[in-house]
Amino acid sequence: MPNEVVLEAPLTINWAINNSCNFACRHCYSRGDTHEELPREVLLACLEKVAQAGVFSVNFGGGEPLLHPGILEIACHARSLGLRISMNSNGWLLDREMAGALRDAGFTKVGISIDSHIPKVHDRFRGVAGSHGRAVAALGDLAEAGIDTSISTVICRINNTAIDDLVAFAREQGARQLNFHNFKCSGLGLSHKDELDLTPEEWQEFYRRALAARDGEKGLDISLDDPIIALLGARDTGSLVKGSVCGKLSLNIKANGDMTPCGFIPIVIGNIVRDDLKQVWRDSAVLEKMRNKKPTGKCAGCGKYEDCLGGCSARALALTGDLNSPDPHCWA
What is the distance between the alpha carbons of residues 241 and 231, in angstroms, rounded to a whole number? Predict the structure, then answer.
């Protein structure tokens, strides 16, 4: 019996419209992707397929989406189809003029990646000197243009003990939301795992403190997208499902049109150019397995399994080769 009610189509598509990037982040999941990008006309037609399938929103990423020469046209087209559009960016190419253009194209929210309140720590992690200052300036330009902003922070060895500083920094920048993203072991993240990842016990301590900070915040929305916070009796307040949202609420589309459960799970389940989105969403054996996970190993005897459903499937796949294995970050 399914763990969740399956929607007819994903609520959200995370769409990496390009692979090109001007940064050299040490945890990047897509830097090794060398597939060709979809021609603009094909991409616009695929957006129509997505809208017709009943998708509510599209979040554009990459690579760095602002390096795509057609980003404004693509966004305008998506908005004309009734799609709610947002974006994740490193902020380097985002100035006052671009912020105004993004507003006019229909963007309601833009997330900027900032991994430390300390400029040199962020710059080293992202591989570009001066990137912290440009990211902070981007937040100001977006706010001035009337676009809601969020800060995306990848939690790892460089920042896991700086929760209070990160929250204070986000508040100072006027961000509406602070997203604490759990470190994944995909792409370069796997290569640098020993350097950047935390032990399960350190993840437990981080989440204890992060949940306390979230519960104490009034004006700033602190988002924790890790299913294993269920072990602490909590869940991501923005999530409508137990366990991971991937394949239940959201789907990932790569620059060449390949569909995967999420950006961190490199299993191709179809291609938006040639396949019917709703059929793939309904019939994919991979998605079915993710929606109906079975407790294995230590999960089989855990009283929290029905809430966390084994944790992050992407980490389990990367480190064990099996989507159904217990999350390697689990401290239980």
Answer: 15
pTM of the entire predicted model: 0.93
Q: Which two tokens stand for residue 256?
A: 């060449």
Q: What pLDDT digit, counting tens, does each position of 163-186 carry?
A: 999 999 999 999 999 999 988 765
Domain boundaries, the chain: 12-293
* CATH superfamily of the domain spanning 12-293: Aldolase class I (3.20.20.70)
108-127 confidence digits (pLDDT tens): 999 999 999 999 999 999 88
Please tell me the distance from the alpha carbon of residue 236 to that of residue 330, in angstroms, as a whole number: 16
